[in-house]
């Protein structure tokens, strides 16, 4: 079996089907407070159209204000079933769909906000995912990213490159850099902060520029 297979959607779906029964307890302990902080930075308002991309078991629902128009997608049916159970318990209406975040089926400018928690280090093609985020966000819409990234301005450390194949078996990556993923897309970084784990975890808020012609030709736009 090729090592590349472990970075495919097929492996990710199988992996997270196995993770589903224990996912909440493990992930909540690791990033519960960081998830809350990330969502607070969005300053959400009732009536806004929110897409949770890579929604998993729906841990974000615990921290979202009421009155939002919520859509949640995930590649793994076992995870979404748990999301639907959580949504019913909380009394939160959610349109939950099994869908690949690299090729979503929503129309252009369908959402005001996209939430990307622990997905860009998981999804096989994060650039395709972010391209879809830019497409489905309305001009001026915003997205929040919470994930593991190594710095853009230096080579990935050898230790992380050696460890990454083992980490990939668990369904994620630890060698991805956010800057190259955003390059050329109509997305501007408006806020960035560390979220612990020796700088590996980051929270990044981005805004959708007015139209695709505003996309930077090189590096991603960062608000000064």
Task: Report on the architecture of this protein.
There is one protein chain. This protein is α/β, with parallel strands linked by helices and 224 residues long. It has one domain (3-222): Vaccinia Virus protein VP39 (Rossmann fold). The protein has five helices and eight strands; from the N terminus they run αββαββαβααβββ. The chain has helices spanning 9-40, 77-90, 126-136, 158-169, 178-182; strands at 49-53, 69-74, 94-98, 111-117, 137-148, 187-194, 201-208, 221-222. It has an eight-stranded mixed beta sheet with strand order 3-2-1-4-5-7-6-8. Strand 4, helix 3 and strand 5 form a beta-alpha-beta unit. The chain is globular. The relative contact order is 0.15. The model is unreliable at 212-218 (pLDDT under 50).
């Amino acid at each position: 079996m090729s090592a590349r297979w472990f970075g495919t959607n097929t492996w990710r779906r199988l992996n997270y089907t196995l993770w589903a029964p224990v996912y909440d307890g493990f992930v909540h302990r690791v990033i519960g407070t960081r998830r809350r902080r990330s969502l607070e930075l969005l300053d959400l308002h009732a009536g806004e159209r929110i897409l949770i991309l890579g929604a998993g078991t729906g841990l974000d629902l615990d921290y979202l204000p009421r009155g939002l128009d919520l859509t949640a997608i995930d590649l793994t049916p076992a995870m979404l079933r748990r999301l639907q159970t959580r949504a019913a318990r909380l009394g939160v209406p959610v349109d939950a769909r099994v869908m690949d975040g690299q090729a979503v089926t929503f129309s252009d400018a369908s959402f005001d906000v996209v939430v990307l928690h622990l997905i860009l280090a998981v999804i096989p093609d994060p650039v395709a995912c972010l391209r879809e985020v830019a497409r489905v966000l309305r001009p001026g819409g915003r997205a929040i990213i919470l994930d593991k990234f190594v710095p853009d301005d230096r080579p990935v450390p050898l230790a992380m490159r050696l460890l990454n194949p083992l980490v990939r078996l668990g369904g994620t990556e630890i060698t991805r850099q956010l800057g190259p993923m955003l390059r050329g897309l109509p997305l501007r970084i408006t806020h960035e902060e560390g979220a612990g784990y020796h700088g590996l975890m980051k929270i990044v808020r981005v805004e959708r520029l007015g139209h695709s012609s505003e996309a930077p030709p090189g590096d991603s736009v960062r608000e000064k």
